């Protein structure tokens, strides 16, 4: 019925508006006043202060579609059907208002009545001892108790340090036998792509002190997260996230540039999916003011761009091309995220500059790294030297994680201790050199910049870093 990604977003947000929720736009990817997180990774992350009560929310019921980045999933991207480093998370939130008796039946109504997902393909998980949730699912919703699975802390209890936390209940879709890993243990909670988790309903009902005590909160909260891209994948019946309507258009553009079609080979398909994903995440990051650098968020951006560029090389492209694909990402997403259209020129330009700078050294770096790897493998070695990884990083712009990945493809690990030692020595040398250059040189400049927090992009004219205009 509702299948387009843009339609699905709208139908979700308006469903929860009909349940008294206030629709808010996505928050930016750079967290505000929160040093515990590099990039926003869930719908609830930018609203933490509404949950703790530190800030009063504009309404007790809120619904959003939040842009998210999860670099922790980078190794899954292109491999599993369901992980991107960028994705959109739909959510409905209750700040001390409704709780399980509303959140669970609404989630079910949305899945089965609005989306008309077949009941026999749906499964739910609950936290081990959450009998309250169990009883609501069985008695109020009426689902088959055989389709309820109890899972432990790792999957079904939400906790980040101290503060609001609690059990959760997740909804899975069974995509069928053909997606199963085939292991006898395959079932809900398996790592393979048969049972796809698409909605997490969190009951934050405890206020943990971080020392093992979980006193119940007077006004418990609801925080839910449903992957829009995953939902679209299920509704469209396609194999993976990158074949979803709007995302597929990005991949098609890459095929057009590279001359490699989706389906040509399993290896090139991985590269196509990786490039699609990484261009998506980097366009959104740059759009929210992240600048390439060797640290923090800027490193994440640089690493994603360079990883995508390397996959471009694997597909045989030697010209810069990511910046061209960026344009399609913007076209596909400008309806929901008008900020991308506003910043189009800046995004494309920045991407092109970063890509061109890497493209000067990437071929030489790749031939070096492959040479080292050939020699090491021939000699029966298992470890790639830290000195070589350092040279690749320092001279050829290869982020250490990229070198690690290329080495791992040949079964080698990198001597990271040696790499870290060489990095540190280099920083110390640079610092000493700046000191020696004297007070009237340009030298002090970089020292002053050290320790300054990441830059926020607040418009074309100004770059503001916590009150300082640079
Ligand atoms: P998984 O177990 O599949 O890695 P998760 O348990 O880490 O997912 P949650 O933290 O519960 O995911 O996030 C809520 C929802 O966000 C998920 O149910 C899923 O629909 C979506 N989601 C999470 N990670 C990703 C990702 N990397 N790419 C796309 N969607 C995601
Ligand atoms: Mg995960
Ligand atoms: Mg999970
Ligand atoms: Mg989950």
TrEMBL record:
Superkingdom, natural source: Bacteria
Enzymatic reactions: tRNA(Ala) + L-alanine + ATP = L-alanyl-tRNA(Ala) + AMP + diphosphate
EC number assigned by the record: 6.1.1.7
Any GO MF annotation of the entry: aminoacyl-tRNA deacylase activity
One Gene Ontology cellular component: cytosol
Domains: entry comment: Consists of three domains; the N-terminal catalytic domain, the editing domain and the C-terminal C-Ala domain. The editing domain removes incorrectly charged amino acids, while the C-Ala domain, along with tRNA(Ala), serves as a bridge to cooperatively bring together the editing and aminoacylation centers thus stimulating deacylation of misacylated tRNAs.
Family under the similarity heading: Belongs to the class-II aminoacyl-tRNA synthetase family.
Protein name as it appears in the record: Alanine--tRNA ligase
Species the sequence originates in: Caproicibacter fermentans
Residues of the full protein shown: 2 to 471 of 879
